[in-house]
Amino acid sequence: MEDYSNRIGNAFQREFNLKKGDCVAVFIENCPQFVGIWLGLSKLGVISAFINTNLKTQQLIHTINSSNAKAIIYTNELETCKK
Fold this sequence. Notes:
By secondary structure, the chain is of the alpha/beta class. The protein is built from 3 helices and 3 strands, in the order αβαβαβ.
């Protein structure tokens, strides 16, 4: 988990130039990677805004917009949201 979270932190810092206090929306279902992503972002001082995967349409849009996230992490399973 240590190596995985370090890779996540380094990748997001390099690709998105994230720094302490920035926010990233985490819109993924429960899985082992969830913890590694959260830890990796935390090592940078990045705030993780956990988005409920049951949200749809306007509620989802509102929640993501309210987070002021610089990036959104999501899985392929959630790419196409059904009403």
